[in-house]
Design brief:
The protein is α/β, with parallel strands linked by helices and 689 residues long. It has 29 helices and 17 strands. Helix 11 packs antiparallel against helix 12, helix 12 runs antiparallel to helix 13 and helix 21 crosses helix 24. Pathway: Lipid metabolism; fatty acid beta-oxidation. This is 3-hydroxyacyl-CoA dehydrogenase NAD-binding domain-containing protein.
Amino acid sequence: MSNINDLFAGEVVTKALVRDVELPHGAGTMALITLDNGFDHTKPNTFGPGGLTLLNEAIDAIAARTDLAAVGVTGKPFIFAVGADLKGAALVRTREEALQIGRLGHEVFRRLGELDVPSFAFVNGAAMGGGLEIALHCTYRTISSGVPAVALPECFLGLVPGWGGTQLLPRLIGPAKAIRLIVENPLSQNRMIKGREAFALGVADAMFEPADFLEESLRWAAQVLGGSVTVERPAIEEDWDKAVADARFLVDMKLRGAAPAPYRALDLIASAKDASRDAGFAAEDEALADLLMGDELRAGLYAFDLVQRRAKRPAGAPDKALARKVTKVGVVGAGLMASQMALLFARRLEVPVVLTDLDQARLDKGVGYVHAEVDKLLSKGRVSQDHANRLKALVTGSLTKDAFADADFVIEAVFEDMGVKKKVFAEVEEHVSAECVLATNTSSLSLSEMGSELRYPERLVGFHFFNPVAVMPLLEIIKGDSTDDATLATAFSVGRSLKKSAVLVKDAPAFVVNRLLTRFMGEVIAAVDEGTPLELAEHSLDDLGLPMSPFALLQLVGPAVGHHVSETLHAAFPSRFGVSENMAKLVASGKPGVYAPDFSLDPEAVALFAGGEHPSTAEQVRERVLGALAEEIRIMLDEGVVAAAQDIDLCMILGAGWPFHLGGVTPYLDRAGFAQPRFLEPGVASVPA
């Protein structure tokens, strides 16, 4: 045990505080364990060897008693427990150490389900990973309706639930529902569920409101012990093998074998159908040991650290105190992107939002979109009727820009053309105050040129959203040559209020994500133009497990937009960014891309790319693309487009869906030998070279 104790030397130890509680109705005495690391909810309960040892000692003392009717486990205010101490797990260097971690968790947690008296988990707050597994080991579970997060996120990080989750959860709620929590949600941007949904899935046996959660849980436990309440759990009758096979097919579609953790999780869930508890837990130990030693975990932890820490403290952001208050927002344009932004501003800032456009029909369509989306939220129970009415009232339209007179923040979302954007801002500046921030949602154009004719160019800032606006977490905030700190601070403040992760970017062509994706796409298209079969080039990077293949991505953004951005970057960097004549043909054809509505390749669209005489192999295309990405990132870092390589990784993870299991683009390129010199200094990333 000394080895893993050394690894977790900095562990914030979660204590197991035990007190006796006399249950109502004469049901007897419960030994109630409260998990508490001594900090408030901002530092959740986690488990390393120290915490597990203290919990084991508490269970030792409880098991020795003969006067108890039951055992309970709950957490400190707002937090039940969120699993293993990942800082220590990242330091594991031998498989034996990894096995010790898995076995220790099993040895301690399983005792809660193997005592002589029933055990109850009272899930009062966030329960993730090993925290949820503690609850699963108990005989019964209650959950608060106010719990904000229930999850088994291990596959998101390159692990599997290793302390009982893959064995206990499918036996409790069935394999299909268990797969949703163990595999599907982690692969869907690490989706969490709330207390009510966990109860509906059958994870908990009873649910109570937060105000008197513990009191009601104790009363319910007494009723269970007294026999007045019977917990009935339906038998698992679904086709276990089919549920696993269906999930494996979907994982293949998403990852194409690129990440081992989800596949190991599915193997474990499959075995839970027939395996004994001992055999199932031993299999979890082995899987955990293998994955703790793999690159995927360290890559995932590096990516997790970026989105949890660096994203919350953006490099180069000015002092928050400089930010101006925003009490009204103007949106120029009423198309889909503009309407999505208007809805987000209204929901998050809860201030009036006014859209403008050239004619009433477009304006009505934009405002109508917002109202329809609010109605969807209402139908799903995500807002009340009163809240829905308030949101609708906040979003209005105007045909004239004098509606912006009292706005503090005006953003344009018009056609990606410099002349159009300059004209828009000239018109807006006639009506707004000198302090009103002017923001552009441009995806590639020069901010400094855009503001060159403004009276107050210092209040112009780039505020680049990604589509769909409500879903994509990244916000590129661009500083022009004249942008002042008060404007930047206001932009970052608004970004935080919108719950976006903002990265400060220099005013450089196409900024970060679009610049790299355009270079990426450009190399694939160039290979096809040269004669490489389109389908071969399209799948040459499948082994990375990217969220979309290159031409599927092109279909999403639209050939016209992709071609326009490539022209912009070609004008700035002609030696590295080409303009494909065949892409121009695709745009002229009016086709939405190379795929037909049934997702098969459109022969007519594919034929537009025919004629090249120098085909490449899939490996050559892959090498070409990755080498080009490495070159472009090195140039961007040398140009100071962002403060550090970590910011490029953050942008690609949050704005382009670069997979967590790769740990960001720069560590992956470092590992694969494409980055010379290394993008990340040794020790910066928890990813082996």
